MFS transporter
Amino acid sequence: MPLRMSVHRYSMALLAYAFAAIMVGTTLPTPMYALFAEELHFHVLTTTIIFAAYAGGVLAALLLFGRWSDVVGRRPVLLAGITMAAASAVVFVLADSVPELLIGRVLSGLSAGLFTGTATAAVIEAAPAAWRGRAAAVASVVNIGGLGLGPVLAGVLVQYAPRPLDLSFVVHLALTVAAAVAVLCSRETSPRQGKLGLQRLAVPVEARSVFVVAALAAFAGFAVTGLFAAVAPSFLAEVIGIGNHALAGLIAGTIFLTSAVAQVVARSMNPERAVALGCAILIAGMATLAVALHVGSLPGLIAAAVVSGIGQGISFSRGLAAVSERTPPDRRAEVSSTYFVVAYVAIAVPVIGEGLAAQAWGLRTSGVVFAVAVAVLAAGCLIAILSASTHSKNPAPQLVSEHEPTDAVPEPR
């Protein structure tokens, strides 16, 4: 018992490691899509469909099991997510067909969907008193940071280590085993109350106006992260003419890593100004991407990832905080789940559209069109925020709350 109590003191750190380790696996295949395409003879459209299968798994887990950790406990749901992640790694190691790759991505999405809300809640609840005010920021950083580290790790292993299509997943399998140990050693933080059921998706009347603007900004930002996670290696190889997998992984990971940093830096910003600023930065990122693809510039592609990551991180995190502040406490779980459903639809649908466009027009042209479309959407959000602020003290789509901004950004459970 004394040993168990001593280990439980580190529950927050253990859960944060498990969270990051599982999220690493969700972006691990990014630098390998080109190798799978070469081995299995498919094109960019198939790559985007395989990538989008992940979002389908996330959405299924959010809707079917989003409330389960409140009822059965955090640890059982986290262990189920770890099991899905390990199964995904095994499938990828054994995969020799497109259907098997799709199964691997769906399993990875299920693991992320089980983990995202549950691990966020567990990290916050396990935080010692000295870390209570920063626990939500820690959860956000390990979530997005894990997404960013996945392609970087895989890119290095694919480029410089043996068995490029297997080793990354073997390494991740080891990380999942360690994550299981970490969860088993942590303390249970759920009150275990309520009933099992589907996660309800709804937005109360008092939050709908702010939700529309924030969700559109989130849609634009997540569409860009999906583009880089799915297609950045193809941009690098086919448009710029560089076939280095480590560099491809670094570019794909950069947008997530800069997003994580931006979320921490912006966590005390006024929500309205932050979302407006994030949209403006995202527009700049898309302009940079369009120019980089048009002229075939590597520095431009890297700059686009950095700038877009900053814009996405600011607009997403502060938009969710603004929505949360306008939402009654007993309805925040369903509203944040709705917000995340919009985000994960944005990861999947526009990227598949990019694949279809690439098949019809070529990768360079389709990438430029994608960048312009996202810039137009972000500009619409920016204009709505600025117009409302200018013409009314209490505008419908305003993102200012009556309360002070909070760091405790809710996640779907």
